[in-house]
Amino acid sequence: MERNSYSYGMKMTGLLLHSFFTIVLTVSVFLLGTLMNRSILELTDIGTENFLGSGYYQKCMEQKCNDLYEYLNLIKKGEARNAEEDKRYLQYNSEFKREDTNFCYWYKEDGVWYTNQPDTETGQTFDIETILMEAKTMGNYLLYDMEKKEFGTNIRGLETYFLGSYNSQAYWPMENVVLVISVDTQLPVKDELYEARREYEQLHPWIKVSIFAGMVSLMGWILTLVYLTLAAGHREGEEGIFLCTADKIKTELLIAGFVLSASELILLMGQTGSKKWDVAGLLVASGTISFIVDVLFLIFYLSMVRRLKAESIWETSLTCWLVRGIGKTLRERTVTVRVLIVFAAHMAVCFVLALGTFQYRNGPCLVLLLIFCGAEAYYLLRTSVEHYRILQGVCNISEGNLDAKIDVEELHGEERKLAEAINNIGRGLSNAVDDNTRNERMKADLITNVSHDIKTPLTSIINYVNLIKREKIDNERVNGYICILDEKSQRLKQLTEDLVEASKVSSGNVKLDMQRIDFVELVCQTGGEFNEKFEGKELTIVTKLPHSAVYIRADGRQLYRVIENLYNNVAKYALEKTRVYVEVQTDGEAAVFSIKNVSEQSLAVENNSAEDLTERFIRGDASRTTEGSGLGLSIAKSLTQLMGGQFDISVDGDLFKANILFPVEKEAADD
User: Fold this and answer.
1) Radius of gyration, CA atoms only, the chain
2) CA 324 → CA 217, 253, 254, 315, 592, distances in Å?
């Protein structure tokens, strides 16, 4: 079977079909069992739908004869009947004495006749031939004449009932009695036989349907179970066996839970089948219970199949857990054995002292018991306090206070060893942080020193290039070389200055003059200085600023450099003939400056994430053909953070957006 047939949809379909076939199979079996229990289903009746020729009709007639025999005996008892017999007599009287009935009888014993025919008088006699002829004209008849030793009937099975060995002594007498029974085969009266025929005609057609549905559902049940067995543990397009939540339950617990729950449900189903239910209600109850049983079965069965495929039955068993636990206990016996010994000693001492105190009423035992319990309470309290101190020390270290130490002078035993180990960990972390800080400082110093060392010869190169440019050289090629030297040397000078600046900013070696600044005015001033550059690239500035001043606390010179860097970044990298959006917003708590533009280069392709653009030497132009150094945004972010602000950028396709956030100066809110 191909792996793509193990998709989630296919497996869900298999589960639903399996549950459907289970319900159909159970309902079919219950229906057949109910029909068989009610004698509607007989093997000889499967091919016929004639009620009068069915085994069900035979059972009804036998029951009628049983009731008639008991009714006649109750009549003959007369006043000798007790209360229970009187109750049954009244029930039979309602059944046999009704004027409209399809069942008629004439019974003679010791010369006395009994009948349910209307308009008859007590002590009236009947001619057997006459009443037999009348009975035959009604359709079904029976003659049981033990005076002349004659028997005749056209009702199937009654000859066995009257003359069979199992009934001959238990019911009807074998001498001095005459019984004639007749049944109107048209069943015009709505009595018990009429209701039996109606029930038979209503339920008998379901025999064939139940047999067919049961066979088909059994085949479907087997096929879907085979498919679910093969698909268990597999996922579409993936290799290996995958376990689910039910597979984490211990194997023995899963088996025990399934056996107990399934047994209870099966017993409930058996009790349901034994009760006098309406057929429709019985089928609904059996179908519901069978569905629940099937769900439990599938959970159990498929979990076991997955465990077999993954070879994890032993790994997930309770026995394995116990064996491994015992093994671990034995391996760690230096700890576990000590705990067990201490616990056993504690129980022994408590038992002896309690026995002496309460059994023998020994005063010294009571004192010793109190002292022993007090000593244990002191030990537990001391241990709890020491654990709390250790926890506090760990929390201090986890919060970044690597110099925090746990006082070990008042600790004892293993708690003292644990505290010393934690102190050593904190010391090691502190040393690692110091080493890392030292390395960062060394890298910053290295960048600064190298930049200064490069700056001196670079200044000489720039000066000599300027001197050469003053000479009148007629060679155009040489003049082109001089222009290239001038351009590259200026770019190298800018890069060197940016490196020095980035090193100072990252190391925090920047002096800040924090003042109260009008954020809106600073943005307007900076933007005005870039109008000429923006017009050169045909960029349209769309500005949205508050009408009133927004005051923040920052270093005006450094904040100007940050905003200037963003404007300069737009002038370098924005797509020509596009709009640039500049906005300042405030909610009374914070002021946010944002600038948005469409990049000339594809930002989505060149950079993995927007945060990469604020790293050193990262540019939107990955080909590095523009004049930027890749340090501008990094310097801007570091300066913003040094002044207590937030700097972040975002990229949406080719749309670049930078945000600068500063808390609003509280004094401004009071103005």
Assistant:
1) 52
2) 45, 17, 20, 10, 61
- pLDDT confidence bin for 616, thresholds 50/70/90: very low
Beta-carbon-side half-sphere exposure of residue 582 (alpha carbons within 13 Å): 22
Rounded-to-10 torsion of CA 60, 62, 66, 69: 120
E strand or H helix at 379, and its extent?
helix 363-398
Q: Please answer whether residues 57 and 51 qualify as being in contact, where contact means their C-beta atoms are separated by less than 8 angstroms.
A: yes
Residue owning tokens 């396709």? 653
Q: Residue 363 to residues 186, 359, 367, 374, 616: CA-CA distances in angstroms?
A: 100, 11, 6, 17, 83
Q: Which amino acid is at 50?
A: N
Higher pLDDT, 3 or 268: 268
DSSP 566-592: HHHHHHHHBPTT-EEEEEEEE-SSEEE
Q: How far apart are CA 189 and CA 116, in angstroms?
A: 15
Residue 142 DSSP label: E
Phi-psi region of 111 (alpha: psi -120 to 50; beta: other; left: phi over 0): left
Amino acid at 207: I
Q: How confident is the model at residue 505 (pLDDT cuts 50, 70, 90)?
A: low
The answer to whether residues 608 and 597 touch, using CB atoms and an 8 Å cutoff, is no
- CA pair distance 187, 195, nearest whole angstrom: 10
Residue 619 DSSP label = -
Judge whether 634 and 616 are in contact, CB under 8 Å. Answer: yes
DSSP, res 612: G
Distance CA 499, CA 496 (A): 5
Q: What stretches of 47-193 adopt beta strand conformation (E)?
A: 103-109, 112-115, 139-145, 150-153, 177-184
First to last CA, the chain: 80
Give residue 441's identity as a one-letter amino acid code.
Answer: R
CB count in 10 Å sphere of residue 311: 9
Bridge partners of 662, per DSSP, are 591
Contact 317, 304 (CB under 8 A): no
Residue 294 to residue 265: CA distance in whole angstroms:
11
Please tell me the distance from the alpha carbon of residue 325 to that of residue 512, in angstroms, as a whole number. 63
Contact 573, 599 (CB under 8 A): yes
Residue 105's DSSP bridge partners are 181
Structure tokens at 393: 């020390």
d(CA 293, CA 257): 12
Q: Give start and end residues of each alpha helix (H) in 156-205.
A: 158-163, 192-203
User: Are the beta carbons of 55 and 45 closer than 8 angstroms?
Assistant: yes
Of 347, 418, 414, nearest to 376 (Cα)?
A: 347
Which alpha helices (H) appear in 471-528, and where do they start and end? Answer: 476-507, 519-528
Which tens digit of pLDDT belongs to each residue from 341-368?
778 888 888 888 888 888 777 778 888 8
Dihedral in degrees, nearest 10, Cα atoms 461, 462, 464, 466? 160
What's the rounded Cα separation, in Å, for the pair 263 and 256?
10
Look up residue 359 and give its DSSP letter: I
All residues at 6 or more sequence positions from 476 whose CB lies less than 8 Å from its CB, including other chains:
none
Residue at 413: amino acid letter: G
Per residue in 515-574, pLDDT (tens digit) is 898 888 888 888 888 888 888 888 888 888 888 888 998 888 888 888 888 888 888 888
**Residue whose token pair is 């939107």:** 620
Kindly indicate the confidence band of residue 581, based on its pLDDT and cuts at 50, 70 and 90.
very high
**Amino acid at residue number 183:** V
pTM attached to this predicted model: 0.42
Measured distance CA(193)–CA(52) in Å, rounded: 10
Largest CA distance in the chain: 165
User: Three-state DSSP class for 652?
Assistant: strand
Q: Quick one: CA dihedral 640, 645, 651, 654, positive or negative?
A: negative
